[in-house]
Amino acid sequence: MTTLAIGLVQMRCGEDPADNLARAIAGVEDAAARGARVVCLPELFRTPYPCQTEDPARFDWAEPVPGPTTLAFAEVAAAREVVVLVSVFERRAAGVYHNTLVTLDADGREAGRYRKMHIPDDPLYYEKFYFTPGDLGFDATRTRYATVGGLVCWDQWFPEAARLVALAGAEVLFYPTAIGWQFDVGEAEDTAQHDAWETVQRGHAVANGLFVAATNRVGHEGGVRFYGQSFVADPFGRVLARASSDQEEVLVVPCNLGLVEQVRRDWPFLRDRRIDAYGDLSRRLRD
After folding, report:
1. Does the annotation count 127 as an active-site position?
2. pLDDT tens, 141-167?
3. Domain coordinates of the chain in residue numbers?
4. Rounded to 5 degrees, what angle do the CA atoms 181, 182, 183 make?
5. What pLDDT, on the 0 to 100 scale, is given for residue 45?
């Protein structure tokens, strides 16, 4: 059975993009030196999370793809022979920006690109102001070491997205993330919110018979306290490793990819799907 070591770089994201980039590169190199073959960075790690307010000047934080961030990690990927999933504030054209995840293969070439499909608009998460909804659909990317899927943050809550990535052949589903507590509602509510976030993703792992890996930011930024706790869950939904809620960490987690085949044989959800009866899923409501 094939064992794939997954690396997750949980980090704080400060005001200096150059410093954020250098620390992200150091995290990827650390993970690679410890045996990781596929490494995922947090959502929009190059800058502070931009969407707490609606500020047109922050469009200047965007960059093309390929561009400075992806080119820097292409060098690291090729030198370390590691696959890297890189989250980028993409400038596609004047006035058209995306929240984009680029998968760089172990030779440094771009192997896949995903543009965030579900765009939130909530207090301190005003992403609809900044990001055009994705238009590349839901797919998986074959890399040197595994077939991986990538979705982004708010996508985590949608089982339809996870299912489509699984149907495209993903063995591991990555979720680069920037999520935290934005109001002082008390420890019990904070715990419930975090548990819901983790539980729904573990459910995607079970329902689709694959590994799920979520990489979050950590620390305070403006009105948000990012809660870290990046984790990897196996196809049974078991958490194999979880980072802390308040520290930068690089997780390296061995994953037995043979479990994907084993679990899908024992729990054949994909076999038993009633694809003839799900047409109403394409409707907003059945009213």
Report:
1. no
2. 999 999 999 999 999 999 999 999 999
3. 3-267
4. 100
5. 98
HEC assignment per residue over the chain = CCEEEEEEEEECCCCCHHHHHHHHHHHHHHHHHCCCCEEECCCCCCCCCHHHCCCHHHHHHCECCCCHHHHHHHHHHHHHCCEEEEEEEEEEECCEEEEEEEEECCCCCEEEEEECCCCCEECCEEHHHCCCCCCCCCCEEECCCCEEEECCHHHHHCHHHHHHHHHCCCCEEEEECCCEECCCCCHHHHHHHHHHHHHHHHHHHHHHCCEEEEECEEEEECCEEEECCCEEECCCCCEEEECCCCCCEEEEEEEECHHHHHHHHHCCHHHHCCCCCCHHHHCCCCC
The pTM of this model reads 0.97
The structure tokens 């990538």 sit at 150
pLDDT for residue 1: 54
Active-site annotation holder among 153, 198, 221, 255: 153
153 as an active site residue: the answer is yes
Fold held by 3-267: Nitrilase/N-carbamoyl-D-aminoacid amidohydrolase (3.60.110)
| pLDDT tens column, 20-65 | 999 999 999 999 999 999 999 999 999 999 999 999 999 999 999 9
Known catalytic membership, residue 128: no
Catalytic-labelled residue, pool 116, 171, 198, 255: 116
On the question of pLDDT at 287 being above 90, the answer is: no
Name the active-site residue from 29, 43, 90, 171. Answer: 43
What is the length of the chain? 287
